[in-house]
Every structure is written in C-alpha cells, then in structure tokens.
C-alpha cells in the first residue's frame, strides 16, 4: 500500500533531495577546505586547534557517508529493483525498514547531535558556567533518546507512514527538541557576546561592528530555518520532509564551517597584530618624544573588537574565548 501524503511522490522526492544535497555538499566541501587551510596555514602541528580540526573532519565524514547512502538508495529504488517484486519505486521508497533509509536516519541523528553539542559547548565556553547549559544538555539527551527510539521503530516497521501514529510522534518530538535546543543555546551564546561587546564599546566610547556576533546569528538562523521547514512539512504531512531531512545534513556542516572560518581568521589576525606590536614597540619608544601620537597598541585595541570579549578585565589586558 503506497502513501497518500500530499506533495511530491516519494521517488521524485528521493531524486530531488539527492540533487539538492549534492549541491550543498559541494559547498560544504569547499568550506571544509577553507577551514582546514585557515586553521593550519603557517602553523606548526603543536599550534593547530585539534578539537576544531577533529569536529570539522567529523562533520565532513558524516555528510559524505549520508550522501553516499542516498546515492545507493536512489540506485536501488530506481535501477536495481526493476523487474523484482519491489519494482514499483514508490513502494520501495515508502519502506521505512529498508537498510539505506535506516542508515541515512542514523547519520542525520549523529550530525544533529554533533551540531547541537557544538553549540552547547560554545555556550559553556563563553559563559564559563555549567548551570547555563543544564537545560540545553537535558534537551540534547532527549534528542538522543527520541532519535534512537525513532530509528529502532523504523528498522522494525515493514511499512507505514512516517507522519502518523508512533512514527510521527518520534519524528515530531525529535525535530522540536532539536529546534528548541539550537534556539536556546544560540540565544544564550549571542546574548553573552552582545553584553561583552557592549561593555567593550562603552570602554572605547564607540560602537563595535560585532562581526563575530553577526556570523553566529547567521549560522543559527540558517540552521533554524532548515529545521522550521522540516517541521512545516511534517505538520502538513508533506513528502517534502524527506527532502528537507536530507538537506539538513550539509546545512549543519555549512553553518558551523561559517563560524570556524570566522574565528580562525580572527585568531590569525590576533597573531599578526601581536607580532607587529612586538616589532614596533621599540620604534614607538624612540619616536614618542619627538612625535606625540596614539600608540599602535591603542589603535589595534580599538579596531580589534571582533577578537576580544572583555567583561571585567583590567586596563591593558585582554581576554578572548576560543569558541571554535
């Protein structure tokens, strides 16, 4: 019995999701290469941010495994099963217990857990308080539970509709928890950075441009928009949910590579500034008596708002959070 959900047919949804996912996957690969280059360029092995490198690589591996499973699934449904008892592509793609479908859902859950866990970790680093992340961690554990039960239920379902009964409960709860976790963690992170930047702006008597804050908001909006689209498709019982679920995997990678690249760029800039300041300190001392002027240290301190967060640091000292 085939599904009667509104929207595009399941075989069409499979081809469409694979095509769009391949495009986004290509972008994510380019951004991964940019991330690797910018965090390793002119750095010794000892100075490389290994956690960032590991997370970026894991995001790429999960995305690669997911699109590979998608290719195998489309080939099985449209080519390999022709002339068999499952020759109807729609019947093949509606089988929730089919191996590649289960594998793809496992990879989606792992990618989601990695993405949400990274946001929670950044939130902890910026706030430096375990209590701040208690609620996000509880919801993250809920994502693990409902994701695991959902996959188990799919693997033991001979057929059925993903939008109804127990299947729908697991899917809906998983997506809602993911969205709320992302919004809460990103909101706490953004609020903390905004407060710190505002204090820095008051010290400088001029407003900062908050470039890091903007890129964090952009990443959160991109990820949340994809999740909201999935939830809308689910509420409408539309097969577009299959498309959006597959697109969420490369979107998670792209959203976090955006932040990786921005923070790594800031770290390179901070290193360059410190090098220039060390090299020019002697020149400043010799010229200060002849040419009274603002020191280079003050100029760089004024223009480097994107690198520092100064909640309560003494004058002339800096405090930066590595949230990559």
Task: Describe the protein's architecture and organization.
The chain is mostly helical and about 325 residues long. Helix content is about 75%, strand content about 0%. It contains 9 helices and no strands. Helix 2 runs antiparallel to helix 8, helix 4 runs parallel beside helix 8 and helix 7 runs antiparallel to helix 8. The protein is globular, with a radius of gyration of 24 Å. It starts with 9 loop residues before the first helix and ends in a 21-residue tail after the last helix. About 15% of the residues have low confidence.
Question: How would the blueprint of this fold be written?
Answer:
Blueprint: H1 10-40, H2 50-80, H3 89-93, H4 99-127, H5 134-155, H6 165-204, H7 211-235, H8 240-287, H9 296-303
List keywords for this structure.
9 helices, about 325 residues, mainly alpha
Summary, kept brief:
The protein has 324 residues and is mostly helical.
Q: Helix count?
A: 9
Unreliable sequence segments = 271-277, 279-285, 290-321
**C-alpha geometry:** globular
* Biggest sheet features: none
How many beta-strand runs? Answer: 0
**Kindly state the mean pLDDT as a whole number?**
78
Structural class by sheet pairing and helices:
mainly alpha
CA-atom Rg in angstroms = 24 Å
- The proportion of residues forming helix, as a percent range, comes to over 70%
String of helices and strands: HHHHHHHHH
Beta percentage is under 5%
Calculate the terminal CA-CA distance, rounded to whole Å. 48 Å
């Amino acid at each position: 019995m085939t599904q009667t959900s509104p929207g595009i047919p399941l075989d069409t949804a499979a081809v469409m999701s694979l095509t769009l996912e391949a495009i986004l996957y290509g972008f994510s690969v380019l951004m991964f290469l940019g991330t690797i280059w910018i965090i390793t360029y002119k750095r010794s092995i000892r100075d490389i941010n290994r956690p960032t490198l590991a997370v970026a690589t894991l995001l790429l591996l999960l995305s690669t495994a997911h699109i590979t499973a998608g290719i195998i699934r489309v080939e099985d449904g449209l080519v390999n099963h022709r002339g068999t008892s499952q020759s109807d592509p729609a019947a093949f793609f509606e089988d929730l217990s089919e191996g590649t479908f289960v594998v793809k859902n496992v990879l989606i859950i792992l990618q989601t857990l990695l993405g949400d866990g990274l946001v929670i970790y950044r939130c902890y680093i910026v706030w430096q308080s375990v209590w701040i992340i208690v609620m996000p961690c509880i919801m993250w554990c809920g994502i693990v539970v409902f994701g695991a039960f959902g996959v188990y239920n799919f693997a033991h379902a001979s057929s059925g509709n993903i939008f109804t009964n127990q299947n729908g409960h697991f899917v809906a709860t998983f997506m809602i928890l993911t969205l709320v976790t992302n919004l809460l963690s990103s909101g706490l992170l953004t609020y903390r950075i905004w407060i710190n930047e505002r204090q820095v702006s008051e010290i400088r008597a001029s407003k900062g441009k908050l470039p890091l804050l903007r890129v964090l908001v952009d990443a959160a909006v991109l990820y949340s928009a994809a999740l909201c689209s999935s939830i809308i498709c689910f509420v409408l019982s539309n097969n577009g949910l299959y498309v959006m679920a597959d697109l969420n995997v490369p979107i998670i990678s792209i959203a976090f590579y955006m932040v990786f690249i921005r923070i790594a760029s800031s770290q390179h800039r901070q290193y360059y500034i410190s090098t220039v300041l060390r090299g020019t300190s002697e020149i400043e001392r010799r010229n200060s008596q002849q040419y009274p002027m603002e020191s280079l240290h003050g100029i760089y301190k004024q223009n480097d708002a994107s690198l520092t967060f100064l909640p309560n640091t003494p004058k002339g000292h800096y405090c930066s959070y590595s949230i990559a």
